[in-house]
Design a protein that fits this description.
Helix 2 runs antiparallel to helix 3. The longest helix is centred in the middle third of the chain and has 28 residues. With about 170 residues, the chain is mainly α. It is built from seven helices and no strands. Helix content is about 70%, strand content about 0%. It has one domain.
């Protein structure tokens, strides 16, 4: 590409570039504690409302309505993931800790389901072990809600990755 033969860029390509930049920078902004908590409460309430609608009104309806409601649930989950990762970055931590928040409760739920523990609440020792499995998750969630963010810029800037790879 030279100045003599410039490449024309269509409006669609410009919009696509803006979309790519917007997606790339989703994880960069800072997130306050109260805003994070309100966002999570609102997301959970919307998710619960969709589940209630699915169970009561959409069970016998045509599949497109059910598919749209599942798509809405997926978008809410994606939004919650973005909020948690933003908040982790605001605390100066890596976004990979998101999995430390999600996996232990999921494993505890699957173990409880596997051994039918919900049918036998008298096995309190197992419930304590499952609760201890989720202790670090509870600690991380409490930090997300109550701990103030770090000073300075956000702990994540995705463009650093591109700068390092271009220099090599």
């Amino acid at each position: 590409m030279s100045a003599q033969h410039p490449v024309t860029v269509t409006p669609f390509q410009l919009k696509l570039k803006q979309l790519c930049i917007a997606v790339e920078t989703l994880f960069e902004c800072r997130r306050g504690r109260v805003a994070f908590l309100l966002n999570m409460i609102g997301t959970a309430a919307l998710y619960w409302a969709i589940m209630v609608v699915q169970a009561r009104w959409l069970a016998a309806r045509p599949w497109p309505l059910l598919a749209i409601s599942h798509l809405g649930q997926g978008l809410l989950i994606f939004w919650a993931i973005i909020q948690v990762v933003r908040r982790l970055h605001d605390l100066g931590r890596t976004g990979k800790l998101f999995w430390a928040i999600v996996i232990p409760p999921w494993v505890a739920w699957r173990v409880a389901d596997l051994f039918h523990l919900t049918e036998r609440p008298s096995l309190w020792e197992l419930w304590i072990v499952l609760g201890l499995m989720c202790l670090w998750t509870v600690w991380l969630i409490l930090q997300l809600i109550f701990r103030p963010g770090s000073e300075g810029p956000n702990g994540y800037d995705g463009r650093d990755f591109y700068k390092k790879n271009q220099a090599e």
